[in-house]
Structures are given as C-alpha cells and as structure tokens.
Amino acid sequence: MKTRIIIFGALAGTLAMSTSCTKTEPTVAASSISKDQEASFPGGKKITPTDLTATPAPLPAAPPAYNYDPHKPNITHEEYARFAWRQFIHFNSPAKKNGVDAAGKSPVVRGSIDPSRNFAASGASDFHQSGRSAGSNFSSNQLVWETFAHRSELFPAGSAPRGNLATLDPEYVFQKKLKVASTDARFNNLDENTQIGQNQIFFPKNGNTPSTNPQEDHIILFQAKVNPVEYDYVKSIYNANNPPTSLELPPNGTNPGESVEVKSAWREMTPELIASGRYHTAEALYYYNENGQTKAKVATFGLVGVHILRKMENYPTFVYTTFEQVDSLTTPEKKDTGLYIVNLYDQLQYDASVPPGTRPSAILNTGSNRTQVALPLAGAIDSAHGYDVVPGKFDVPKGFSGPIKVQNPPVATLAVYNVNTEVQQAMASTPEFKNSVWQYYRLVGLQVLPTNEDSSITPKTPDPLTQDFYLANIVIESSQPGIQLFKGGVKDPHPDKKDFTLLAKRGLPSILGVKAKGLPPNADQLVMGGCMGCHGNAQYPRDKVTGQGPSIFSFLIDGNTMGGQGFSADVRNESPAELSAKRLEYLSY
Fold first, then answer.
1. 422 and 46 in contact (C-beta within 8 Å)?
2. What is the pLDDT of residues 119-133, one digit of tens each?
3. pTM for the complete prediction?
C-alpha cells in the first residue's frame, strides 16, 4: 500500500465559470515599499539579461522577514515574483558534469550547478538529447533539479536511503519488489499517474475532443523529488524499526541548510511537439502492466508544469512557486487544446462551513481587483451542478465522472503578470534566448506565508498575502473543488463504503503546530488555501485519536514511509479497480 495523504501538490484551474457566478470589485492597492527596503532584498530587484546569462546562475538568498503590515508591506508580491523567477533560473540551469560515461553511473554531480554553463544553455531544444552517449543510458545534460533524489530514492521500499546523493547513480526500488534495472534507469521517473488520487488528466490525441476511451489519449504523468539537504536529513533520522516521534525539515535548530522539493508534470509527446522547440524534453521512465507484471519503459516526455517548494529562515511553511508551459489550454495557433480530466469520484460533499444547498465561493485578489467566484454545488459531478462536462458518449468507468474540460479561474495577479513581462522582454533582448524553450514557460504564482482568505470583495485594503491565496497549476491540480480553488482540506468521508465521494473541508484550519518562528500568533487558526493550505495537511506524527499533528508540509514523509513501506509505481494502463483503490491511498488519514 502507498503512503496515505490528503493532498499532494497544490491547485489549478478547472472551474467552469460564467459571468453569472462571478462578481468583481476594484482593490485599493497597498503602499509601495521604499528604495531602502527594496535594497534589503536583492532577490526582488528587476530581472535583466545579466540575470538570465549569469554563469553559473546563483540561487537567490532567502528573503528577509515579512512585516505582516497590509498597509505598508516591506516586501511586495512583485518582488517575491522576481525571487521566484531567480529560483527557476537557478534550478533549471545545467547540472555539473563529472566526466563519467558508463552504463548505470551518474554522469553528473547530483544537486550541483555547472559552474561553466548557464540558464541559456539548458534552453536548447536538444539539450537533453545532445548529452547522450553510447556509453551510458543517462544524459550528461540534466537540469539541476532533475538530479535531485526521486521519492523512491528518499524512501526505497524495505530499506534506508543510501550513500552520498551527489555521487549516486539513480536507483529506484518500489513496493512489490519492483526494482528498475540500472541499464533502464533515467533521472526523470514518472511514477505517478493521477493528481493525488483525485483524477487523471489528458490531451486529446485528435483535435480537441476526448477519445471515446480517454485512456487512448495523451496522459500527463508526475514525479516528486527532494534536494540533497532534505535527502541527507531524512537519511540521518531514518530508523524503520523505531521511527522518530517528531521531525522538522531543515532549516532547523541543528541544520541551517534549506529543504527543497520539486513536483513536476510531463505530457506524452508526439514527434511534432518534440520538433516544435517549445518544450523542455527528456527521456523519462514510465510504467506499464504487461501480463500482470509492472514493466519500466522509456519515452520522450515534455515538461508542462513544475512546483518548486523551498523552506527558508523566516519562511517555515515553505515558499511555493509554480510554473507552466504556455500551450496547455491553447495551441500556438490559439486553438483550444481540449485538455480534460476524468475524476475518480462521482459525488462531492462540503463540510459544515458550507450551508446545505448553497454554492461556496472563493475570493480572488489579483492585486488590482477582487473577484468572487462560485464553486459547484454539492452532489453529482455533472453539468447541472456547475461542471463543464464535455458532451458526448465516453467510456468512463462506473463511479468516475467526466470528461470535464479544464479551465482557469481568474486567479492571475497583476504582480506576476508584470514580472513575466519583464522576463520575456529580457529574453527577447538576449540573443542566447532566440530559440530557447524557456521563452514558453511562465510563472503562475507564488505563496510565501499563510493567511486567511479576504472576507469580502468590498473595496478596502486587502491583505497583500491573499494574492495567490488560491495558488494552482493548470496541469498539476486540475480538478474542481477538490484541488482547484481549494482551501482547508479534502478527504473521503467514509472510505469503508467505497461510494466514490469526495469531501471538501473548506472550514478546516490547515497550518498546525509549526515549530519555527516567523508566523503570526494565530497561525493554528488559519484556513489557508492553495499549495500551502494543502501541504499544511501533511502532518507528522498524527495523533491516533484526532488524526492531527504538527504540519511538516511534505507529503512524502509519514508513518508508513518512515517505517520502511516505500512507494508503489503507478502504471500507465491502470485498471478502474486499481485507480479506485488509489483514491483511498491519498484521501484517508
């Protein structure tokens, strides 16, 4: 059995909306910061061509502490957005080569940036392919984060994490005695086939209409990785026979390093998409069931979404940043891609914070206005309850729902838009980026510290931290109320009945017992949304009576993985029964 978690990742757009269910009012902007304050945060300065071509690209230092003043914040959302881009530039630069060219051996120093190459170098459309050689199945051209430890390396089934990550060749050990042969291994290991057990997401293979059997379309697959600091920390406390009774990921009292986690989404590629030069592509593992046996296969996939989570001094709940490739909803020719999901449930319930028979709403603060958006009604997952169900006849298993068209609610912030424009202009003025794939990636948004949602759309000064309160990535969290416009928590209300129901607990405080300093006094009462609210439900250890514990913000770590259980590998052609069971692996606690 896989580790049991409530939510993994953060959220994204699939809410079918019309003007009848949205209401918008202008926002009174908070005061801008002074030049003296700006100077205290170098990572927030304007991004220039020099930042794009720095060799190597530095990892931006942690932002200073936030002053929690809605009328005069010491750091603006725009500055945080520039910090997010600088992180992206660093982690998507080439990893350092180590000169090894042998089968089963890592040709790079894992987790280290190449001192002689920059972000522009990794933007070549053949970056990964040009690093292949006859001697090794691994490419010597990898992004820094691609070389981090895969979740199945952090927690190999049945054993402790091994050795010095920097020098290890990737080794993947899953439940059911599945071990990937060293000659088959790749750095990208796409072992997750659902969005945290709630749904699967597809691009139609023909035009923009789903195939009669959605499994024949092009699926999006996922993976999760951690940096060497987090890997070494877990290795240092790991004891399957006597798991630790508490933990705090670095930085903590004894380890000043910073924990980083990366969740990425990859689409199955066609030759035309590969040749387009608009995607970072790489060879990746995926899994298939053949005659009852799970087999690892290799194909070329394209990166379509990436979350970067970084825990820093003064930011103990992690800072969440997320990026998307720009073609997921519309093609370069501005045609609808038909991106859709199939939910692994067919009923939705809300908790007592939503009165029966009413539609809950979300208040979105763009920085220039606030918009109130209505979510679907409780009940069946169909068009009558507010879902954009694709018309037609499809082979959707009993208990599932869809296909449902993926859409974005109006969550984009003015600050993120402005910084994306700034980066695009810097790329456009830099010859090295003329044909770079990185032209086609955008910051979606970021969350830095927890807060409650704005209480109304009345034009008064809102809390600046509520910008990106509903942070989501269109290809990583695409279901509707479950992980789209999410706050609080979600679970299966009665898993023993196996009745395919999802419970959205929108009134649940989701930031609990955080040990480190840097949070407001009432943090345990915050009903946070988006990535941070979701990850607040990652708690260890959990009380056996209440089911709650302190938030550690990593869904990779729980009693099962710390006890040696490890993870299972999801197969591409998983059966409806197996997918149904997977819901409970993620939605029970």
1. yes
2. 999 999 999 999 999
3. 0.93
Tokens of 396: 């959707």
Task: Judge residue 176's burial from the number of C-beta atoms within 10 Å of its C-beta, 0-12 exposed, 13-18 middle, 19 or more buried.
Answer: exposed
The residue count of the chain comes to 589
Strand partners, 289: 294
Residue type, 142: Q
Taking the alpha carbons of 37, 42, 44, 45 in that order, is the dihedral positive or negative?
Answer: positive
Q: Which parts of 347-437 fold into alpha helices (H)? A: 414-428
Which residues, 6 or more positions from 170, have their beta carbon under 8 angstroms from its beta carbon? 106, 138, 150, 153, 185, 186, 187, 189
Closest residue by Cα to residue 70 from 447, 519, 451, 532 = 451
Residue 26 has phi, psi (to 5 degrees) of -65, 155
State how far the Cα of 512 lies from the Cα of 509, in Å rounded to an integer.
7
Q: Could you tell me if residue 498 is left (phi over 0), alpha (psi between -120 and 50 degrees) or otherwise beta? A: left
Task: Give residue 237's pLDDT band: very low, low, confident or very high (50, 70, 90).
Answer: very high
Helices (H), 268-413: 271-275
192 φ, ψ to 5°?
Answer: -120, 130
Across the range 53-64, mean pLDDT stands at 97
Q: Out of 224-228, 296-300, 314-318, 490-494, which region has the weakest mean confidence (pLDDT)?
A: 490-494
Contact 529, 205 (CB under 8 A): no
Q: Give the tens place of pLDDT for each residue, 239-250.
A: 999 999 999 999
